[in-house]
Amino acid sequence: MLLAFTEQGSGPVVVLLHGFPLNRAMWAEQIQTLSASYRVIAPDLRGHGDSPAPDAVYTMDAMADDVVELLDGLGVVEPVVLGGLSMGGYVALAMALKHPSRLRALMLIDTRAVADSPEAAKGREESAQAVLKAGSPRSVVEAMIPKLFGKSTLDQHPDRIETMRVEMEKTSASGVAGALRGMAIRPDRRGEIAQITVPTLVVVGEEDVIAPPDEARAIAEALPDGRLEVVPGVGHLSPYESPRAFDEIVLRFLQGLGRGESD
User: What pLDDT shows up at residue 217?
Assistant: First the structure.
């Protein structure tokens, strides 16, 4: 799988994985900020952005393998800091468990460790079928918008919401369906989290209704070296809704790693 990607900066490698049905454009402000001190790599996961969208079920393990293949192709042999939001967090968890030697540290952002309930999985399949029938992701995008953003973003920043809506609607029907079906069968990771020993930053928006703060707290507490940060006044897209606050949290974490600290 040849993933499209943005690469900027030099130094220790930081890889950022976007959510569903987004693409690497959601990380624009983080790329600008972090690349002053780090080599930032932000791919489009399979089926999203400019990456290929095969007609298939996109499992989280397969997407993690895509990221490893990209790093190999870029000659990145050293362990990286891997960050993932929402679906990108599912992929990051899969990579941390399947390819632990490739990680120096982990950032789990507005994501979950629990599997879909049978009802949620059924809903994803119904959405996948509807999107394929329509040939457009619009129905999924419209349903997601109110859940993706915090109240203040919805009320005060319609321009930023519209920017993300445009990016989401670029995602092909096959890409949306493949990701929905892959997320529906993802495993429950709660029993495996304790295997992840690298320093891990768990970030969540205070108003996130998709991956709520209580779930983020449970993930952080289950990790051997986890710490939780809550971004006030934002929802599921905390890096995009409040980039300054989010970037400050991430930079503190990365700078701690640079000093050889894990606390």
Answer: 98
